[in-house]
Amino acid sequence: MRISTAQYYETTAANYQRGYNDTLKTSAEASSLVKVNTAADDPVGAARLLQLGQQSAALTQYTSNISSLKSSYTQSETALTSIQSAMQSARETALSATNGTNTDADRKAFAQQLGQIQQTILGLMNSQDANGNYLFAGSKTNTLPYTANSDGTYSYNGDQSQLNLAIGDNNSVASNVTGWDAFQQSINTARTQVTMTAPAVDDGRVTLSNGQISNSATYDAKFSGGQPYTVSFLSSTQIKITDASGTDVTTEASQNGVISNSNGANQTVTFRGVDLGLNLNLKSGDVPDTVIAGHTFTLTAQPDTFNTSRSAGNPSTAVVTSATTTNQAAYTSTFPAGGAILKFTSATAYDLYAAPITASSRPVSSGTMAGSTATAAGVSLTFGATPPAAGDQFVVQPNNHQTQNILDTLNQMIGALNTPADGNAVAQQKLLATLNAGVSNVTSAMDQAGSALTTIGTRGQVLDDQSTTNQSLVLANTTSQSAIRDSDPAEVMTRLTLQQTMLQAAQLAFSKISQLGLFNKI
After folding, report:
1. pLDDT for position 199
2. Counted domains in the chain
3. 288-335 confidence digits (pLDDT tens)
4. CA–CA dist 491, 473 (Å, integer)
5. CATH assignment of the domain containing 451
6. How confident is the model at residue 312, as a pLDDT?
7. Which of 268, 302, 336 is the last residue of a domain?
8. Are 108 and 181 found together in one domain?
9. How far is 72 from 69, CA to CA, in rounded Å?
10. Is the pLDDT of residue 47 over 90?
11. Are residues 291 and 335 in the same domain?
């Protein structure tokens, strides 16, 4: 086989260039100790490094999210703890106010204390984080969570949405606690009412409180179906209770409706999960059975009330001045439980939709104005002097009184404490009933805030557990990347020495062989 001189030179030069390039590459690897700089260096390893890099970036984001969540939880926990402390102060103040030796002046002082506590709690409910976002407004972080209504009640303006952040693969937790969960779901134990129907003029002989729910399960199962109830005093020692159909249900009352006339103050009659405070106020010379018999009361659950508001973009300035249930059957069967929107299609025609309105929404009720009143789904809404216009929308939110926020509870106690009661036994009995119900509701509100704190604690534990898992994944990721990307210093230096030696040998061999031409022998 013959090899031309030109071919030999070309082959030798190519081999030398290849060896030289390998030496340069290994030298660079020895300097950086990185063996995969491009996909060409190791296609499989480069693909795996790309996957590990994506995982590393996600783990870094998870760590950032966990840090952000912990900060948010700390702020919410601090606010909730302060609110609980304020509620405890309100409870202690209300209990002090129940002392029978207090005067009207004393009670007004207690009312002022409760008013200050109420404002403190309101401020904490409207707490903001460092970025100006409201902590308890749900996803509506730019909306003030709680505002006062014209009637003195307070409305929650946030929503029930939780803002989730990912803290691991297929694992995310809510970053916020909504005001709905922390404050709006406090059980209202005072959601029944008593109305005297006989005698026509209250003689003060019998005081029956509005009642306080002591057994929610019994109340929910039995009370609603039989209302309204009639409580009749047959004598000074016996009452009779009949349901809406006239059926005698007295056997379901404590002691089968037997009461005491010898010690008539501060008695309790329990009926279908409701405790009714009873006081017989006998006067000197009274014949007990004669003055007590014939007193009659109606006992019912408080009817639903409504909070209404106009949409900001309404063409007119019309406002709803009152909203009442005028057809209970239609209201029960038709009115949306989650709230409704009344939308005017003309100056007099309107449709009622379940909130919120979507592209697929259909009216649940329609009608036309009768004077200044619009009636839909059993609810009549009366407008002020300015009539509505086409395009107007009004939000109608029902309140069934099953729950009550702490601000409204404090309002009721403040109002009761500011009502004069000195020298008036009946007024003092009603005051005591209101305060007792208020104390129970404050306790319920504390429990609800406590549940929110427990939720934060549980989420914090999830963060700690996931953080530990993430740290393990970060370590494994770093180790895997290093195994693929990083070089072994000893192996690299050995390889570099070998390549340099081979390159030198190739240079020497080329030099010697190039001198073996025939012309060198002439």
Report:
1. 95
2. 4
3. 999 999 999 999 998 888 888 888 889 999 999 999 999 988 998 999
4. 28
5. 1.20.1330.10
6. 84
7. 302
8. yes
9. 5
10. no
11. no
For residue 150, give the amino acid letter. Answer: S
**276 phi and psi, to 5 degrees?**
-105, 125
Whether residues 236 and 291 share a domain: the answer is yes
Asked if residue 301 lies in contact with residue 353, where contact means CB atoms within 8 angstroms, the answer is: no
Write down the residue that tokens 């134990």 correspond to: 189
At 224, which amino acid appears?
S
List pLDDT tens digits, range 178-217.
Answer: 999 999 989 999 999 999 999 999 999 999 999 999 998 9
| Distance between CA atoms of residues 60 and 14, nearest Å | 47
CB proximity list for 227: less than 8 A, separation 6 or greater: 243, 244, 299, 300, 301
Is residue 352 within a helix (H) or strand (E), and if so which, with residue range?
A: strand 349-354
Beta-bridged to residue 207, according to DSSP, are 279
**Is residue 415 one of the residues assigned to a domain?**
no
Kindly report, residue by residue over 466-515, the tens digit of the pLDDT. Answer: 999 988 888 888 777 666 655 556 666 676 577 667 767 666 766 666 66
Helix, strand, or coil (residue 197): strand
Cα–Cα distance for residue pair 155/147, rounded to 1 Å = 6
- Domain membership flag for residue 313: yes
- Rounded CA gap, 453 and 74, in Å? 10
In terms of residue numbers, what domain contains 113? 54-187+441-472
- Considering the domain architecture, whether residues 219 and 170 belong to the same structural domain is answered as no
Q: Is the alpha carbon torsion for 414, 398, 142, 77 positive or negative?
A: positive
Among 8, 21, 19, CA closest to 510: 8
Per residue in 76-90, is it b (16+ CB within 10 Å) or e — as a string? bbebbeebbebbebb
Q: Say yes or no: 316 and 288 in one domain.
A: no
Q: Are 178 and 212 members of one domain?
A: no
413 lies in some domain: no
Q: What is the largest CA-CA distance in the chain?
A: 161
Return the H-helix or E-strand segment holding 278. strand 274-280
Tell whether 241 is covered by a domain: yes
- How far apart are alpha carbons 115 and 86 in whole angstroms? 11
374: amino acid identity, one letter: A
Alpha-carbon distances, residue 140 vs 48, 70, 137 (angstroms): 42, 20, 5
Q: Do residues 141 and 157 make contact, with C-beta atoms less than 8 angstroms apart?
A: no
**The two structure tokens encoding residue 145:** 């969570």
d(CA 353, CA 504): 89
Q: Decide: 383 and 321 in contact? Cβ < 8 Å.
A: yes
Q: Residue 258's pLDDT is what?
A: 96
Helix axes of 406-417 and 104-125: crossing angle, nearest 10 degrees: 160
Residues 259 and 347 in one domain: no
Q: Are residues 18 and 105 in the same domain?
A: no
Question: Of 302, 329, 360, which closes a domain?
Answer: 302
Which pLDDT tens digit goes with each residue over 84-126? 999 999 999 999 999 989 999 999 999 999 999 999 999 999 9
Q: Which helix (H) or strand (E) holds 35?
A: none
> Residue 320: what are its φ and ψ, rounded to 5°?
-85, 125
